[in-house]
Amino acid sequence: MEHRNNETYFVLLGLTQNPKEQKVLFVIFLFFYILTMLGNLLIVITVIFSKTLHSPMYFFLANLSFLDIIYSSVISPNLISNLFLGKVIISFKFCMFQLFAEHLLGGTEVTLLLVMAFDRYVAICKPLHYLLIMRPWVCVVLLVVSWAGGFVHSVFQLGTIYRLPFCGSNIIDHFTCDMYPLLQLACVDTYVTGLLVIANGGLMCSILFLLLLMSYGIIFHSLKHLSQEGRWKALSTCGSHITVVVFFFVPCIFIYARPAKTFPIDKSVSVFYMVITPMLNPFIYTLRNSEMTNAMKKLWNISHMR
């Protein structure tokens, strides 16, 4: 199977081939997708229209929710179709597009989480200089850097796999086109390619995760200088962010920071950080953030009065 042929296609097997399990999972993941869209869209709308949520933290949070909306729309519809139809046939070009989009959005989100940690560091450790450092144009530049980082990461990932010849099986035992399942189908030695994927994916996730842990270590050390109320507010905000970071980074490190092999548990781990985490993010940030919940209540009351 030569990938330069316009008729080249892949077959995605999805999560299971059991018809009963497919029906149950179809309902579950359709519900998850709707919940993800509604929850993240609610955060974006609240931040845009609220008069009290114009700090850099909420600017980045709204962009994180926007990323989760797009990311879920790239992943979940394919997964839901798989569960409804049993198998999904996709062209080579669409497979490459999906691979590019996954890593563009995932790489951007990874970098954005680091930016959000920097924002919390400045807010807690340098409160008097916060508005001076985190000016609007600085926030925009940091957002652009996040997207640029995701783009570079995605181009590199796509470049490592696009030129590989696929001349054997075209069946992907996964619910999405991803690096390691595709490497299993290449009819050449992919040892060097696997090392490049580890360096660009697993190593990047591991380094950023360590940087995030170090930054929060510094933040927690500085909390002793705050009042009890300030300490509780900082812990609440940072706790939400750390939860999201762990949910996203740990599965990412498990998948990519290892030799280029696939394991049965990979699909379950991928479901967690590709589907479950974007759904949980709105709940994690809103349930532990009184400012966000109060802003949502005010907007709800205003819309209800109208």
How would you characterize this protein structure?
This protein has 306 residues and is mostly helical. Helix content is 75%, strand content 3%.
Give the helix/strand class: mainly alpha
Lateral arrangement of strands in the main beta sheet? 2-1-3
Give a short account of the largest sheet.
Answer: 3 strands, mixed
Compute the separation of the termini in Å: 60 Å
Low-confidence stretches: 1-7
Shape from CA axes? Answer: globular
From the alpha carbons, calculate the radius of gyration and give it in angstroms: 21 Å
Mean pLDDT: 85
Order of helices and strands: EHHEHHHEHHHHH
Q: What's the SSE blueprint?
A:
Blueprint: E1 9-12, H1 19-49, H2 56-85, E2 88-91, H3 92-125, H4 130-133, H5 136-162, E3 171-172, H6 179-183, H7 191-222, H8 228-256, H9 266-287, H10 290-305
Parallel strand pairs: 1-3
Antiparallel strand pairs: 1-2
Helix pairs in contact: 1-2, 1-9, 1-10, 2-3, 2-9, 3-5, 3-7, 3-8, 5-7, 7-8, 8-9
List keywords for this structure.
three-stranded mixed β-sheet; 3% strand; 10 helices; single chain; 306 residues; globular; mainly alpha
Compact summary:
With 306 residues, the protein is mainly alpha-helical. The chain has helices at 19-49, 56-85, 92-125, 130-133, 136-162, 179-183, 191-222, 228-256, 266-287, 290-305, and strands at residues 9-12, 88-91, 171-172.
